[in-house]
Amino acid sequence: MTDIITVEATDLTRIYGGREAVSHVSFSLKKGEVLGFLGPNGAGKSTTMKMLTGNLAPSTGTVKICGIDMLENPKEAKALIGFLPEQPPLYRELTVNEFLTIAARLHRVSSGHIKAAVERAKERCGLTEMGKRLIENLSKGYQQRVGIAQAIIHNPMVVILDEPTVGLDPIQIRDIRALIKELGGEHSVILSTHILPEVEMVCDHVQIIHKGQLVFNGSIDVLKQQRKGNRLLLGLGQAPAQEQLLQITGVERVESLDNGLLRIHHTAGQSPAQRLVEAAVAGQWGMYQISPDQTTLEEVFVQLTFQEAA
Ligand SMILES: Nc1ncnc2c1ncn2[C@@H]1O[C@H](COP(=O)(O)OP(=O)(O)OP(=O)(O)O)[C@@H](O)[C@H]1O
């Protein structure tokens, strides 16, 4: 990964009928980075993708692709982007070769380079053997590969994929995710999805959007750090009354789990682990386990996106 900024979105806002569908979204993306754009249905992902790709004008804010302003120089900026919309524009009655040739022309690949561009895109997307097949006869997973192949045919700096694994079976999903990860080496990739594990598997960086606003923007590692959360698992042979545990500084809540363990919820940044160990020794509670209790990424997501509802 380099420090070249390929996408810079500043203060993007889109208003529909007086309502902000996307509200003051800013972020940047570096070359080689895979960014997961994560949010529940209706969060504003597609609206943001359309603004990034120049298919929808923002109400306010700017998009720059490799420093080129999308509003001022749309043709130049768009030439640097490959886009796979949620509904891929596939011509089902064409063969893979025919379709990719048209896509190359539309992306202004010069005629002398079209054949090589088609071969390379097929090779990168695992379609080498499929050139003469009609798109309508391909499985959905292979059709999706064709969709990705058309997005990278002109070797763009930035590839934007809107929900690319929806409707695929588990093996197809695995293959497409591997392909997306691989694309990150040469391109910057933005992957819009509502699937958290997908982001975890494929992306370096994640942004979570909820009701049009970014509620998280950071590396996957930072998100995983949040999973460490503010909880401990405690195993005690002779557990004292909960009141006694609650008297220990930092302990906020105690939960009894089905497996006999206690889940200790504690104040952020104030792990009571050492105090618990000391109290357990002094009180002869028979401590056999104390460990961090990681929240799942799903829980982090719910915390971040539904905190208003909680
Ligand atoms: N053309 C439009 N006119 C009015 N409202 C719209 C329009 N397009 C989207 N919206 C609204 O803007 C909000 C964001 O929609 P958007 O499609 O960007 O969400 P999304 O995160 O992509 O969801 P999904 O995964 O369901 O496509 C939603 O409340 C939606 O109803």
UniProtKB/TrEMBL annotation:
GO molecular function terms noted in the UniProt entry: ATP binding; ATP hydrolysis activity
Keywords for this protein: ATP-binding, Cell membrane, Membrane, Nucleotide-binding, Transport
Domain of life assignment: Bacteria
Gene3D superfamilies (alphabetical): P-loop containing nucleotide triphosphate hydrolases (3.40.50.300)
Keyword Nucleotide-binding in record: yes
UniProt cross-references to Pfam families, sorted A to Z: ABC_tran (PF00005), DrrA1-3_C (PF13732)
InterPro entries: AAA+_ATPase, ABC_transporter-like_ATP-bd, DrrA1/2-like_C, P-loop_NTPase
Keyword ATP-binding: yes
Domain ABC transporter: 7-236
Family that this chain belongs to: Belongs to the ABC transporter superfamily.
Listed name of the protein: ABC transporter ATP-binding protein
